[in-house]
Design brief:
Radius of gyration: 21 Å
Helix content: 40-55%
Largest sheet: 7 strands, parallel
Length: 361
Amino acid sequence: MKILILTNNDVGLYKFRGELIQELLKRHKVIISLPYGELVEPLKKQGCQFINTPIDRRGKNPILDFKLFLTYRKILKEESPDFIITYTIKPNIYCGYLSGILKIPYIVNVTGLGSVFERGGILKRIIIRMYKRALKNARAVFFENEENRQIFISEEIVRENIAIRLMGAGVNTEKYVLTEYPQGKKIKFLYMGRVMAEKGVNELFEAMKRLIKDGIDCELDIIGTFEENYKEEVKRYELDGWLHYHGYQKDVRPYIEKCHCIVLPSWHEGMSNTNLEGASSGRPVITSCVSGCKESVINGKTGFIFEKKNKNDLYRVMREFIFLSYEKKKEMGVEGRKYMQKVFDRKKVIERTLLYIKTNY
């Protein structure tokens, strides 16, 4: 069987779906369509055929989007795949619509609702209408959290019987192994993600400044790219001595190993992979009380959950964590690891995905 996978970036496909692709390649030909990035090369080495498909991920230019639609139509007609799997909003909508017209079986993955659903308004209504058309003939629609699933059902975008909740992409517990909890009096927090307001970085910076003002010996490491103009602010905090910016990192495990706690104050997520990776490595997680984040934490046992967009509540839980005993922090990490193995192991997610592909082809 020839399977075509379409998404908007190489990082997410390789890091979070790589194991699924490996399983598919054992029995099927796999073609991937996405913008070129350096992580395309290892996917090609695994055996994938690659089609370079530029996408303006966050753009709203109708001319560029129509060109993308035409590009997808050309790809589908030339490749004539037997089955299609899509990730992220533009591939989901445009390829979903085309797959229905061309009568190609397809599965859609809703990896998050994004800022459009957060802000509402006319654009949200347009996206809902487009999604309704695109998912009309889908064999299955996978969601990473229950809230996203219920929104699509309540908006009558998708039928309940094909709306399937997975535990995100899961986490590779064999790659993100339990590591020794670090010693040292200085508490090291780690943020992994794009540096932008919707990831809660403003609240995180304010909470950190209060902790430093309290005279607490702590620091923050940041791994990720700048999506918005935070460079000067980050440089200022680096000069103050409590923030260390490391940019994008291919392998985050050395940074997780050195930290005492993962912090993600995001406003919305599909399912936070960084929380899963940190917890699987035996690190407590502090995260916001939103779907896609809160599922990764057992509050008070494997970390702490705080109110979204609330810098004071974030400060409160970070301070509470700091003053826990070393043994309690370590215990939280161990319990988080157990929770990941029980609920979020990627092997379970892959098994379920393969079952739906087999059933719906």
